[in-house]
Design goal:
- By secondary structure, the protein is an alpha/beta fold.
- 33% of the residues lie in helices and 26% in strands.
- It has a 9-stranded mixed sheet with strand order 5-4-1-8-9-10-11-12-13, sandwiched between helices. A 4-stranded mixed sheet has the order 3-2-6-7.
- α4 packs parallel to α6 and α6 crosses α7.
Length: 291
């Protein structure tokens, strides 16, 4: 594998109500089920782009074989630990008319990812280790994943991380998150997550504050495009193309895949940002979080 992703595998239940929710009564809605999970989506988009990618995750034992087959079909080498007690995680996504999302999350088996699931041999030949921030929000998986990241750094493998969730960042505490992730090279964050981590609302101030902790900071700004700052360089920015967004689920995951795939091919920071914005925008024009 050239790139290894560590993160969640989920089943997404996507709900688009036909109007405001009616407390205590019914509201018609379009409801569909789709494969999801931030780490799984990121790996799937990387596979879609032709990257040599693997995924490490923990899933319900009853789903393991079918999920492995599905990931292989998407160009992803799966390393899925079957959990005998907990089911595969489930995420309920509530869609607003403009495509914005709210989530109800049951991470289930994902929370039990452990050191046995992350042998150092998985890093053989890996050029980038990417960690989904969701794996840092429960104590057990956090310890295992951070230990694995430390092994990668000793092997001089760059480690990238996405901040994952402003809500969960507030729960664990921004200072704790920044302390846990010391030494990680690259952070991907959206505007809400960056504000939570820094207390700043100006994007340049957010980049400057986060660059004290990470060598490269990538700031996703939705319809306003994206910005990036690397140590010793000037900030770069990329506008977003105008698209008719119907579902922003997975847009950040597609963005990340576009960035990392271009980086693997030797692209500049500006090249990586342009590819990321283009793929992230494209992802918003479809339902669900995968290609």
């Amino acid at each position: 594998m050239t790139i290894l992703v560590v993160g969640d595998v989920m089943t997404d239940i996507i709900v688009r109500p036909h109007g405001p929710l009616v407390r205590g009564s019914d509201r018609a809605a379009n409801i569909r089920s789709a494969p999801g999970g931030s780490g799984a989506n990121q790996a799937a988009w990387l596979g879609h782009l032709g990257a040599d990618v693997g995924l490490v995750a923990r899933v319900g034992a009853a789903d393991a074989a079918a999920l492995e087959q599905s990931f292989r079909a998407q160009g992803v080498a799966p390393h899925l630990a079957p959990d005998p007690e907990y089911p595969t995680g489930v995420l309920v996504t509530l869609l607003d008319p403009d495509g914005e999302r709210s989530f109800l999350t049951d991470r289930a088996a994902n929370m039990r990812l452990n050191t046995d699931d992350l042998p150092a041999t998985l890093l053989d030949g890996v050029e980038i280790l990417h960690i989904s921030g969701y794996s840092l929000f429960s104590e057990g998986s956090r310890a295992a994943v951070l230990a694995f990241a430390a092994i990668a750094r000793r092997k001089e493998i760059p480690v990238t991380l996405d901040a994952a969730s402003a809500g969960f960042l507030r729960e664990v505490g921004p200072a704790n998150f920044l302390a846990w992730t010391t030494g990680i090279e690259t952070l991907f964050t959206n505007a809400d997550e960056a504000q939570t981590l820094t207390g700043q609302t100006d994007p340049r101030a957010q980049l400057a504050a986060l660059s004290a902790h990470f060598r490269v900071v990538i700031l996703k700004r939705g319809a306003d495009g994206a910005m990036a700052l690397a140590h010793g360089e000037q900030p770069v920015s990329q506008p977003s193309p105008h698209v008719a967004a119907i579902d922003t689920t997975g847009a950040g995951d597609a963005f990340l895949a576009g960035f990392l795939a271009t980086r693997l091919n030797g692209g500049s920071l500006q090249d990586c940002l342009a590819a990321a914005v283009a793929l992230g925008a494209r992802a918003t024009t479809q339902l669900g979080g995968r290609p």
